[in-house]
Here is the input.
Amino acid sequence: MSDNSSDRIKLLSAVAHGSIFISATVIAVGIPIAILIISDNSVIQANAKEAINFHFNVWLVGIIIGALSSITLGILGLILFPLWFIYTCILSVWAIIYCLKNIDKPFRYPFILRLL
Here is the structure.
């Protein structure tokens, strides 16, 4: 594998996982979806799938926290939303660092539901 190819794997894998920082909207998941479609490398595709799954999990947990927050008049939201945000950021940074160091093995987020 050439340096150019390993740089491509690192970049596309890191971008797929880093897309969570762009926004929490549906638009951000388009980046790993596009990477999944255009890439022919199995590691890049696996990282893109994992990033898509992470987006779905972030949305699902956000919906659950939002529902719990509305039931408790915002009290649980004041506690859970910051914790959820920090957890999301830490996992995303971990994934990016992992992808920049390991080109042979895709990153796997712990404790998430995998739809893909």
Residues 3-101 form one domain. The chain has a mean pLDDT of 92. The longest helix spans residues 42-71.
